[in-house]
Amino acid sequence: MSSRARARIDPPILLVEDKDSLRTMLRHALEAQGHTVVEARDQPEAEAALKASHPAIVLSDLRLPEGDGLGVLRAAKDFEPELPVIVMTAYGSIQDAVAAMREGALDFLAKPVDPDVLLLMVERALVQRRLTTENILLKEELAQRRGAPQIVGDDPKLKAVSVSLHRAAATDTTVLIEGESGTGKELFARALHMLSPRADGPFVAINCAAIPETLLETELFGYEKGAFTGAANRKLGKFELAHRGTLFLDEIGDLPLPLQAKILRALEEKRFERVGGTSPLQVDVRVVAATNRNLKAAVAARQYREDLYFRLSVFPVTIPPLRERSSDIATLARYFIEKYCRDLNKKPLILAPAAEEELRTYPWPGNVRELQNCIERSVILTDGDTIHPRHLNLSFRAAAAQLATEQASPWDKIDLSGTLAEASRRVNGEVERRKIERALKDAAGNRARAADMLQVNFKVLTSKLREYGLE
Hints:
The chain is α/β, with parallel strands linked by helices. It has 4 domains: 3-132, Rossmann fold (3-Layer(aba) Sandwich), CATH 3.40.50.2300; 156-318, P-loop containing nucleotide triphosphate hydrolases (Rossmann fold), CATH 3.40.50; 322-407, Orthogonal Bundle (Helicase, Ruva Protein, domain 3); 420-467, Arc Repressor Mutant, subunit A (Orthogonal Bundle). Helix content is 52%, strand content 12%. It has 21 helices and 14 strands. The chain has helices at residues 3-9, 20-32, 43-53, 69-79, 94-102, 115-145, 156-169, 185-195, 213-221, 238-241, 257-269, 295-300, 306-312, 329-343, 353-361, 367-381, 389-392, 394-407, 420-442, 447-454, 458-467; strands at residues 13-16, 37-40, 57-61, 85-89, 107-110, 175-178, 203-207, 245-250, 271-272, 281-282, 285-291, 315-318, 350-351, 386-387. The strands form 4 sheets. It has a 5-stranded parallel β-sheet with strand order 2-1-3-4-5, sandwiched between helices. A 5-stranded parallel β-sheet has the order 7-8-11-6-12. β4 (85-89), α5 (94-102) and β5 (107-110) form a beta-alpha-beta unit. The radius of gyration is 28 Å and the shape is globular. It starts with a helix and ends with a helix.
């Protein structure tokens, strides 16, 4: 492949260097080999360039006038975990480069920079990136042949989740999938299973919130004959049924406290007893859990066991809500249109530009599940060959959502996590801040007059303004 052709195909290289002369020299060396270069002089410029250009490689100096190379490295890894980062450092700061390598840098380059060594490193980084991408694609293709669900979307946040799933799939570690309702947590759990060495084993799912507390223990661990009235035969629980496969514990945040200790023991020892049994049973199970709750807050409020939370969240993965990946909405919509046209034996439909715009601007509180239901209904209602805004009925949905928001209790918006003292401090602080803001507005910004209205002395008001950042 010619260097000119490669420049059109490969994403750019992000070059972060504050010295103009060195940055120009490095850019010329890279461009001479057919690479496209995007430049930044400090960490804030680099972070903006990451989002705007989606680079193939990041080449960053460790010492920058604002921020530093480690900050650029972390931002790059947050943006895309597999993004190769090469750091440059002065000869006397090799220890800093070693620290960067520990945080995920691919390599480091000592100054003064040798252009030939730089180009060699860049080529090696590009090869590694291509191999990583090809490996992910091959795994996904194999998993889909085995029946894995298709995850639709090209948003960088979704791609980062995909990379995390591939990393986790190769291990037997416990994975906690976090995300709002409707984001497709079970879909991702099934994909994780199909990408793993356990793909030929069973995938067993149980919704911890959908089963009454009195029955949940027997569903998870099974029971022996005669364990209680009505137990006429032995029943195997989900842990046994998932032997040599994956057990998916959905809505794990709603697990009752009495059961949390038993789940913890089963996770740590891979052994348990059936209800009414005396002999411990050993199982080989990989556990994937999911929740739409903030488990950290539940732990702080003593509603959830801290040791279980830490055991579940060995490898946390957060699924972004649909509103945070709006570029995927039209892609998902067309995917669902094709699916439901096929399922309903209808001729292919197209999406009108006005309908696509409505889909993009709607906030989708129910996430992908809501979008899927909306498209299914639209396909059913459409008689012609085009889906128009009237078929989506989103104006009604938006009005209903607004009404629900207006009718919701204000207490639903208050963070009540933590101890009583902590929650009280937060609520009192918010009341004080809002009251002071209103007094200043009523006093047209006159602080002395606002202090009189609040019946506090001027010094106290000044201190509160500083405390709440209202100066």
